[in-house]
Amino acid sequence: MTDTQMVLKNEQATEQLARALAALAQPGDALLLTGPLGAGKSVFARAFLRCFCGDDALEVPSPTYTLVQTYQAPACAVSHFDLWRLGGPDELEELGWEDAREGVVLVEWPERLEDLTPTEALHVGFTVGPDGVRTVHLHGWSDRVNGVALSASLPA
């Protein structure tokens, strides 16, 4: 497994990382986004979805209340899950988790997946330091992620 860590100097760097990873995503992939509120998960998800779907103007509402939003991209469907309000992994069946796994899934609050966590997922962990500096840690996709850190740290 690849472990990469980088500082995200601004929102544009977060967006650039999301676009770089969207270019690598394939049907069956899962990206698991962790981090505290305000760490950059929503900025990342919005940029990822716009790039993966090929639509820079795509409206990307937060799935906090709907729990899942699904978009049709050229390669496959992509589902954005926000599991903050999920009662447990058994509720995922009602949300179409198994069908969504045929496409790409982007999951906020993935710890609620419990034993349904995909083993080959890319873990994207956001942290915010006391000085407000955001850092992201990537774990997984060792066959694809090499070199992304360098490209994401370039100025937007």
Indicate the structural class: alpha/beta
Question: Between the first and last Cα atoms, what is the distance in angstroms?
Answer: 27 Å
**The named CATH superfamily:** P-loop containing nucleotide triphosphate hydrolases
Please give the share of residues in helix: 10-25%
Number of domains: 1
Under the CATH scheme, the architecture is 3-Layer(aba) Sandwich
* Sequence of secondary-structure elements: EHEHEEHEEEH
Structure description:
It comes from Acetobacter malorum. Its main location: cytoplasm. InterPro entries: P-loop_NTPase (IPR027417), T6A_TsaE (IPR003442). Keywords: ATP-binding, Cytoplasm, Hydrolase, Magnesium, Metal-binding, Nucleotide-binding, tRNA processing. GO terms for molecular function: ATP binding; hydrolase activity; metal ion binding. The protein is an alpha/beta fold and 156 residues long. It has one domain (3-132): 3-Layer(aba) Sandwich (Rossmann fold). 23% of the residues lie in helices and 26% in strands. It contains four helices and seven strands; from the N terminus they run E-H-E-H-E-E-H-E-E-E-H. A seven-stranded mixed β-sheet has the order 1-7-6-2-5-4-3, covered by helices on one side. Strand 3 and strand 4 (77-82) form a beta hairpin. Helix 1 (11-24) crosses helix 2 (41-53). The longest helix is centred in the first third of the chain and has 14 residues, at 11-24. The radius of gyration is 14 Å and the shape is globular. The model is unreliable at 152-156 (pLDDT under 50).
